[in-house]
Amino acid sequence: MDNSIDPFSPSTPLTRELLERYALDKLTPEERHAVELHLENDPLLHDAVEGLGMPGAVEGLHTMHRPKPSGMGNGAYLALGAVLVVGGIALWLALHNTTTPSTPTVPVASTDVHVPAVIPAGVESTLLVVHAELDALPKRTETVLEDGEELDRFHQRAQTPAQTERTAIERMEGTPVKLDRASGISAPAVKRATKPSRRLLYLHGLKVVHPDEMDRDRRAPLRSPGVPANAEPMRRDSIPSGPTAIPYLALLDEALGAFSRGEEGVALDDLYFLLGQYPDDVNAQFYGGLACYRLGLYPRALRLLQAAAENPVDSFREEALWYEALTTVKHNGRTAARPALERIANSGGFYATQAQVLLEAR
Asked: Among 111-120, 134-143, 241-250, whose mean pLDDT is lowest?
């Protein structure tokens, strides 16, 4: 009985008698169809049945007999003897510990070692200012959330752990971006007929735009994970050395992992390090803004979230506008954020209901 759960697999069992009748064209249409389903699934069986269709093949099949299995030949005995001899020698060497001293080998430099790189001066100065701002913040205690704030899953913040060492990342050419915009909350994006499809990833449950979507024209070739073909492993000087880089997504995964664990300070260091090389990186802009929001650095959060909302890669536009409005509530009060909240509530988007709750709260 066929127990296959595939609805397209043959359900009728195949027997030798059916194959012989098929070769002699003595089957009903239903039986013939069932046999042909088996033949379609088994090319070897199909070739065998074609052989049965030759004149006299079916009659000759009954005169054939399966050969009797032969016993162990001389070759098998020789192979068994060789195995026993080799096993005996190996056992004798192991018992007597007669190993010969081997020639010491020169260690080969690993291509996976990440050498700490010097942090660019601009990034280092920015991080120094950020850390100073964090130190100047008053020690916050747990406070009662205002009406509507329980809807923000990024509101809670954790303590900032110690600063960790940074390494260089793979994409090295950054392009400064000048954003000519008026101060205040970003205007809503113009609705378009269709939204372009972008490649997205999810790291630690957080949405990320694939790096290929942000720099299709200036994408640098990936660094080879191996060594040159003409390198001599025994000579260290034959393997070229250079600045070690880690993949973009690996650094972003590290930053978002810290962010998801509540280590916003570590995440912010990574994200600012990324922004130092790619000022227009929408992933770093958005999650850097969220990290600043959770840490209480509201002016920085406003700048980063506004940049993410106005970024040509608009995958975070709706989220950035919402958290920009929440940051304005925290920094300047609900009255200052009311125009932005009204635009979000009237847009009918994902955050419309939450914006309406904040507007109606007293």
From this structure: 111-120
Tens digit of each residue's pLDDT (9 = 90 or more) over 140-157: 654 444 444 444 544 444
Residue partners of 55: CB distance under 8 A and separation at least 6: none
Query: Could you identify the residue written with the tokens 């393997």?
Result: 239
Share of the chain above pLDDT 70, in %: 61
**In CATH, what number does 121-138+145-175+196-214+245-360 get?**
1.25.40.10
Euclidean distance between CA atoms 54 and 221, whole angstroms: 60
Q: Is the pTM of this model over 0.70?
A: no
339 within 8 A of 214, measured Cβ to Cβ:
no
Per-domain boundaries in the chain: 16-59, 121-138+145-175+196-214+245-360
The span from the CA of 17 to the CA of 21, in Å, is 6
